[in-house]
Amino acid sequence: MNYVAELLAVGTELLLGDIANTDAQFISQGLSQLGITVHYHTVVGDNPQRLKEAVAVARTRANIIITTGGLGPTYDDLTKQTLAEAFGKTLLLHEPTAQRLRDYFMRNNKREVPANSMQQAMLPEGCTVLQNDWGTAPGCAFVAEGIHVVMLPGPPRECASMFTNCAIPYLRALSDATIFSRTIRIFGLGEPAVENKLKGVMETMENPTLAPYAKEGEVLLRVTARAGNQADAERMVEPVLHMVADTLGDAVYGFDVPSLEAVVLDLLKKNGVTLGAAESCTGGLFAKRFTDLPGASAVFQGSVVAYSAAIKEKVLGVPKDVLEEKGTVSEETARYLAEGARRVLGTDLAVGITGVAGPDSDEKDNPVGLVYVALAGETGTYVRRIYMGKDRNWIRTLATLHGYDMVRRYLTGKDIETVEELR
Amino acid sequence: MNYVAELLAVGTELLLGDIANTDAQFISQGLSQLGITVHYHTVVGDNPQRLKEAVAVARTRANIIITTGGLGPTYDDLTKQTLAEAFGKTLLLHEPTAQRLRDYFMRNNKREVPANSMQQAMLPEGCTVLQNDWGTAPGCAFVAEGIHVVMLPGPPRECASMFTNCAIPYLRALSDATIFSRTIRIFGLGEPAVENKLKGVMETMENPTLAPYAKEGEVLLRVTARAGNQADAERMVEPVLHMVADTLGDAVYGFDVPSLEAVVLDLLKKNGVTLGAAESCTGGLFAKRFTDLPGASAVFQGSVVAYSAAIKEKVLGVPKDVLEEKGTVSEETARYLAEGARRVLGTDLAVGITGVAGPDSDEKDNPVGLVYVALAGETGTYVRRIYMGKDRNWIRTLATLHGYDMVRRYLTGKDIETVEELR
């Protein structure tokens, strides 16, 4: 069976330009990996008549319709009603969802579920309920008249999680071509540098394909094979991984890993090593991103966000004359920050970050984008000096990644201080 | 004349999820300001048959069709040919564009224009040519059978610049209404609660309209008026702002402001008050988000991310018996964290946050989602107890927003501890 999908996003906020349709992007990527072709994306407002018309068009040109949005508790959330009606389904109260809502309201608001919230528990008869772990509105899937209808919530976090956890397994069962992908993750080389090193390889590969994409300070390479079965596809991908790892060296930090910090968390756990930080220009981002990881508390002890010079001196013990003579943005201050954090927080390793995130230069006229990242450990203190452009968010993100990368290299016995080109 | 627009994006890369349709967002914002309603966005691949079908659908439901993409020099750039054919127009060589191409190729490549590139100079007869200052492919606009067709290039920078510089003046000439919007920002009430409090008002308002949308822990209400001129539209919006502010009370934290933390930064600056924090479950997010704001360093001194109990005790002075008897997630610990941060960091105000962000319950079996947020200041220490669901990111985000909200209420003389329902 050849499946063709259409994505139907419901929400006036999209038509007003308040948000971009990132749900469609996320879902399209996933469908492409499943080998399901997408012919159209449609966006329609919270308007039942126009939604009905969009469904009428979509069912003539797709056999999978995936809707996003319009599942919430407010009067303009009409997706379920409209789709159910279009496919001759009745909405019925789904008791487990109703119970979840009752529990939720009792626990949080000490009251009954209001009528508008209870409409979230009304679902098309005979549907598969897609549980929403991040919000109160469940999604659902049903097949009618040869068309698979999948309804997901609009908020990107809820949509992505339900698509990945619920819709993909549902759709995978329909698909017959096997597509298998693995992702190589790289930090410390920019996309042009990666392309230069792999010159002539990427363009000529057809199956598997090798495609780069840039992701906030990192480069990802996706190797994708298409075959008659899973085992063949996996076998085709394997040698490409090794070829790329040999070519790019230490900059490759993992295959199919979720992030650099996740790799660092694993390494710290395996080695029984604790981590702390002292952050100036990153303002807590190093700690925040690391503690985004569930389980970080096993090794991450804490961070001192020392935004003011007084805190650098009083809490972390950076000597006053170093701050005054070398400046808060200097190799020496970075060293003292890392060593101070290691001492004050009592950790095995500590990262110290100081730099100019902008918009203005610092008191010593250091340019925006200059950052020093230090790592203090048992074997000594290591420092990277990095210059990374003018954008505040980019500077803070990249400085944070450099901190993680130094920890990774420390724990895997690689060169810690050398920085290759990033652009 | 009442104009209804449909945006038609052409590009297989959108259907594969390589990029999001940010062109549609940008153009929709502009159309909304011009008072032109958008009923649908459609995305179609580089496929002439399906593009033709999408045009056939669009012309039945819109009288302005704006296409993006498919104007370039490659074989799959088919937008002009397809749209011209659909509206019975012939493509003719546009001599000034041809000359620009000849100049461009001579200057850069020292050769004649290749045939595929020259197709960029073929434009529908009688069209308005929209010059592209960023690339070689011009856009165009024409009217046929009562439908205005505007074609813009796909690359976001080219599209945005041509839309702003060429398409807006073209469309403004068609429009006869002015649209004016203001946004009311709310923290501390969920979308259903906002709707309940404004029951009967939102649904019945027609001009101005009042529309809610949820945004990570907050609710935004947009008031939009349509009038013959700007001054009238502004006058119509004003009383609605006051009505909403009166109805929702302290939960309204601003009109047209960028974020809660931005309002807090302004208040701190105006009052000459410094801020610090002690963060457990938020792991640096409170500091990170605040220091995302350029200029935060004027008032924000720092934060101690005390992920481990040892740091809570040793760096921030939370008594060991409090940690052991009351637990790290308790009202008492939150108080000590805020007061400890205020003392150690030497700030006027300090926020302390402790809670269970999950995935597991804490050592006292407190449930995931339970958070205490404390604010210590000259007049005392205030605590909120909040229960906020199961998602780690959501818990951390909401806890952070509660911290900012308490600072806002402290500095504006409002009730600091009361929490209304958020869903």
Structural account:
The structure is a homodimer of 423-residue chains. By secondary structure, the first copy, chain A, is an alpha/beta fold. Helices cover 39% and strands 25% of the residues of chain A. In chain A, helix 2 runs parallel beside helix 7. The mean pLDDT of chain A is 91. At the A-B interface, helix 1, helix 2, strand 2, helix 3 and helix 5 of A face helix 2, strand 2, helix 3, helix 8 and strand 10 of B. Strand 2 of chain A pairs antiparallel with strand 2 of chain B, so a sheet runs across the interface.
Topology:
The structure is a homodimer of 423-residue chains.
Chain A: E1 4-10, H1 12-15, H2 22-34, E2 37-44, H3 48-61, E3 64-68, H4 79-86, E4 91-93, H5 95-109, H6 115-118, E5 122-124, E6 128-130, E7 139-144, E8 147-152, H7 156-172, E9 178-186, H8 191-197, E10 209-215, E11 218-227, H9 230-248, E12 252-255, H10 260-271, E13 275-279, H11 285-291, E14 300-306, H12 309-314, H13 320-325, H14 331-345, E15 349-355, E16 370-377, E17 380-387, H15 392-411
Parallel strand pairs in A: 1-2, 1-3, 3-8, 13-14, 13-15
Antiparallel strand pairs in A: 4-5, 6-7, 7-8, 9-11, 9-12, 10-11, 15-16, 16-17
Helix pairs in contact in A: 2-7, 3-4, 10-15
